[in-house]
Amino acid sequence: MRRGRSRCGSTLFRPSLAALACTMSCLMLTAAPTASAEDTEREAAALFDRISDDPVLLRVFLRDMPKGGDLHNHASGTPFAEEYLSWAEDRAFCVTEVPAAISPPPCEDEGEITAVGLMRTDPALYAEIVDALSVREVLADVDIDRSGHEQFFGSFERFFPIVSEEPDRTLASIKQLAADDRLSYVELMFNPGTINQYTVQSEDGDWDESDLDAAFSRFAPEIDALVEAGIQQRDKTEREAAEILSCGTADAEPGCDVTVYYNFYGLRLLPNEQLFRQLALGFALIEADPRFLGVSLVQPEDDPRAIENYQLHMRMIAFLNEKYPSAKVSLHAGELTLGLAPAYALRSHIRDAIEIAGSSRIGHGIDIAWELDSRKTLDRMAEERIAVEINLSSNDIILGVRGKEHPLNLYRASGVPIVLSTDDQGVLRTDMTEQYVRAALEHGLAYRDLKQAARNSLEFAFLPGTSIWKPGQPGTPSPTCQSVASRSCRALALFSPKALLQLKLEDDFEAFEKDIAGWTIAQPE
Q1: Would residue 10 count as lying in a domain?
Q2: How many domains does the chain have?
Q3: Looking at the domain assignment, is residue 100 inside a domain?
Q4: Residues forming a β-bridge with 364
Q5: Four-CA torsion 61, 65, 70, 71, nearest 10 degrees
Q6: Buried (b) or exposed (e) across 490-518, using 16+ Cβ within 10 A?
Q7: What is the DSSP string of 196-209?
């Protein structure tokens, strides 16, 4: 099988990076920053301040603002329900009214009807399916018999039959949505289907959680073939997504220019022996395929099974990371409230993710104020530059945490770097621009704060290569990049995917600030 990370330079591996690298001759000729560039940033910041309490004007401003990367993004939750219904129609899938869901053909079971033409033949059922596949009714304050938490997590099984058949269209949709939102990078939780299918069917009759080494040894002979199958499937998915977006042609969609790498995920609620095998495959895949960078855990952290097994899951990750040291770890941790989980579950999940599993980013991190020794954990995160992936819409809908109850400003005041993320854009009916608007309206972030969050998103991404900034300090130039327009700095982009996207972001900021400074609609009368 393919070993190491030798494919990093191939056009199959990263066509969007190859295209960006072709622009290097232009980048090398970019003029050094001038006083006028500083002036336009100041003007953009002043304009932002004048409209900072107006959500509509803020959205116009922030829609066009370059935002770097989305580091917390689940593939299956990103396309919108309407897209899933369109794909179901193309495949002649079925829908059911009770429960409202998409199901595979043939449409012969009681209550099943074809999805073909549903929008025209039964618009009421069509709307009901959209509601079932998303949190649309929660956002509209419709009185339903489920919490936002229940509606959110319950929606995935309702569209799983179609999303599992459409990895190529899922990836194409993600890239296009990101491009619309002025994102240049997505770090996507997206497993090869072959690995997930194997995992749920696997068995280990000799499983003993106290002997992970023996469990790994029993499974090791199967790993190489399964990883190779996963690599081949992802090759196919990327090729087909590129065809959907017409990449490499005169009609290429903007999504072609969005760079995507992957984080592998494990399902917390699987039986422990199956989760261990799933994670082992994820770590091995990262070692073998440079498109895969990190590992995470998904599904509700407040589920009693997840709480009971949390320490074991952390030990699994630590064990496997010793065997596969190329992998990075970014764990959903602290996605908890006292309303959902008992107090003892909020004592140490974030701390344990860092201390036991070696997580170098934290997803959500909502319960930090409830954790024991939280100040110590915050100090460590600040010192070691362990960023927090902030998901404002998600935390509002799923946990009921918003405004001053959200720890975003606690992290910032403690010196912990933050990034803004979408989590599950389609299910949540949101986008990255809304996360920026909410950060401004609800948490008081100014223009330069949001610009820093965008820079953070690329600095703390698991992207390979040298940064243009001092380690963990985006905005503070490295010795090579005292001027981001210098020849030495621009040369980094020839060898570093991270530097390439960081330099593009800086160029995009300069262009945006020049343009937005001329926006007269928001000038005082």
Answers
A1: no
A2: 1
A3: yes
A4: 333
A5: -100
A6: bbbbeebbbbbbbbbbbbbbbebbbebbe
A7: HHHHHH---TT--T
